[in-house]
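Good morning N.,

You mentioned wanting to compare the apo and holo forms, so I went ahead and generated the holo version with LZUJQKHR. This is what I fed in:
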Amino acid sequence: MKIVLLGYGKMGQLIERFAMKRGHEVVLVVDENNRESIEIEDLQDADIAIDFSTPHAALENISLCFEANLPLVVGTTGWYDHLEEVRETCLEADQALLYGSNFSIGVNIFFHINKMLAKAINPYKQYDVQVEEIHHIHKLDAPSGTAITIAEGILENTDGKKSWVNSIEGSGEEIIPKAEELLIESLRIEEVPGTHTVLYSSEVDQIEFKHTAHSREGFALGAVIAAEWLLGKKGFFQVTEMFDFNN
Ligand SMILES: NC(=O)C1=CN([C@@H]2O[C@H](COP(=O)(O)OP(=O)(O)OC[C@H]3O[C@@H](n4cnc5c(N)ncnc54)[C@H](OP(=O)(O)O)[C@@H]3O)[C@@H](O)[C@H]2O)C=CC1
Ligand SMILES: O=C(O)C1=N[C@H](C(=O)O)C[C@H](O)C1
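and this is what came out, ligand included:
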């Protein structure tokens, strides 16, 4: 595949390495420095684009790829308030977009088991649940996209929780969740690549379900595999649609 990389930071550079290892070619790299000078024609030789940029840039990049008729994988998080309008535009314009808060296989297994766990614990009202996410100090968004996906999986399967609220450690803002609110606690620590924990606590015990990324390699490889999966398709997809864990 001929790939356009939108965003060439920590993730973009690693994705280039994995793409080349799998026999693909990076034909264009776009970052903040050259974004303004990029024209639709610059994208037209490529087969697919992969965006790991910033929440604001991702929305602009999505529009650019739709205009250029270029299928697009979006790994950037922090733009999900606009998800519905992007989905509508994508489908109306007959384009192809796959997005995901986390492309690692481990986290996608975690997403699946998280829902099963929530369903299993749901009848036992003595347990309260919360989500914790830890990331590096450079991260622009909170809570993490992964934590939002985890929270959505819990909300779908837990009668007592209706929405999530976010508390950022050290922000000075005290968040006291109501009983029907699921707390997502965000911590920012040095260079942590991404750790997510679901905690179920009762008076007598605690169940912890945790995923720890040791590096960003799983995310980057997953993004390249997602691009391979998307090629030739039309529509609006989530990364979870690539997996079938029930077989
Ligand atoms: N879904 C997943 O599996 C994962 C998602 N992520 C998400 O991916 C995103 C990027 O993460 P990461 O690589 O760590 O971040 P970095 O800050 O390391 O890189 C961001 C890149 O985006 C570039 N950029 C800024 N504006 C634009 C623009 N208008 N067009 C194109 N590129 C632009 C920056 O350019 P410059 O350097 O010139 O400023 C930089 O190269 C984040 O939202 C993060 O949450 C991260 C890991 C996994
Ligand atoms: O910004 C990051 O680094 C990460 N972002 C994604 C998220 O917001 O969930 C995925 C991963 O945890 C790393």
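Helices lie at 10-21, 40-43, 55-67, 83-92, 105-121, 145-157, 217-230.

Happy to go through it together on a call whenever suits you.

Best,
F.
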